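The following record pairs a protein chain with its ligand, uracil.
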Amino acid sequence: MFVPGLIARKRDGGALSAEEWRGLVAAVADGGLPEYQLSALLMAVYFRGLTPDETAALTDAMCASGARLAFGPAAPPRLDKHSTGGVGDKVSLVLAPIVSALGVWVPMMSGRGLGHTGGTLDKLESIPGFRTGLTLAEATAQVERIGCALFGQTAEIAPADRRMYAMRDATSTVECIPLIASSIMSKKLAEGLSGLVLDVKTGSGAFLPDADRGLDLAQTMIALGAARGCPTVALVTAMDRPLGRACGNALEVEEAIHALRGEGPDDLMRVTEALAAEMLVLAGRCATAADAVAACRAVVASGAAARQFQRIIEAQGGNPAVVDDPAALPQAHAVALFRAPRRGVVARVDPRRVGQGVIALGGGRAKVDDRIDPTVGFVISAKPGDLVDARQPLATVFARDDDGLAIGLAALAEALTVADEAPVALPLVSHRVTTTGVEVLGNGTGGD
Ligand code: URA
């Protein structure tokens, strides 16, 4: 394999064969491809893109570079949900217990915070003792025993993607649809799933803020899943404001617990139910989305969903008492209210600025090895469109100390705008994408 020739062909707009992608990925996985060649190749792909055949070959090669979760032929359907990343997005923490309490297995491999967005693993690790670093064998056994495991990408799964992703992060080649699609799908396909639901975020707080690019990514991943026996459906959901009220690790776990007890904020519940319904229909557990939403509500109302979260926490070494008493989660030392600067309408709650504010408070990472403070963040009660009086409390800052409070209040002063009128918010769930096409569900009232 003459790598400079392959890089040149990609640079000049040509395509590589499946065999050439297999060779390259094998060399990435075993460390045989020098980083300067990998970075040049990634930049060539970033500018030239990949054909559908190349995207498929890269996905298959990355998936085959590691192990897969293996379930027996009599195992119940296995479904997962993947979000492209948001602020206040604690859907996984609510959805996984609900869906698995309904008898569908959920082997959920999640990530850490990326850029301004939070990560499910960081949130879970705010539960005292919770261990996300399961081996594949542990994750498989736990799914077989209690129907769900919430774990991180192990060294065994798609190791080529791990290296390639780190290099993309360092070479500004992350925002490339075929590279994102192959990276995500290579890991999801390794989970041994019977189906996958994607939550593609759109709006200013999304990695791909433009709706058309989000749809393109969704369609690329759906095609990859469908061709590999993993039926995949995507919902496009709003990220022009944070989801729910809490933004910050332990604060989001607390909100998720309230949601599992039937006291979740409306927007969080609607997105969670919409995604869970797709999973339950794909799994054959419910005939229609309406039946599935009713089943989700029943399993929350009966307490079974909250009990399932307790079981998952206990199985992974965490303190299950947090579900009955969220005060057992780590608590911030300093708390302050953020008040409306004037009377008017909340025109904007900028999710990107809120996410950056959580990082500035110590609740995310500026560098890979930064330690996270699980206690810090915001609870923002104001939503775009709300009428507010001057000095009315709009949010609470949770910080380590007074300096943190000042940082948090300054972030909120930039993120929250009160004006005479508010722009139309994005619909909460705007599109449903399947192999058959794109269905428009909402058209821009924010409240549909
Ligand atoms: N998440 C992934 O796993 N890969 C990407 O490329 C982007 C987000």
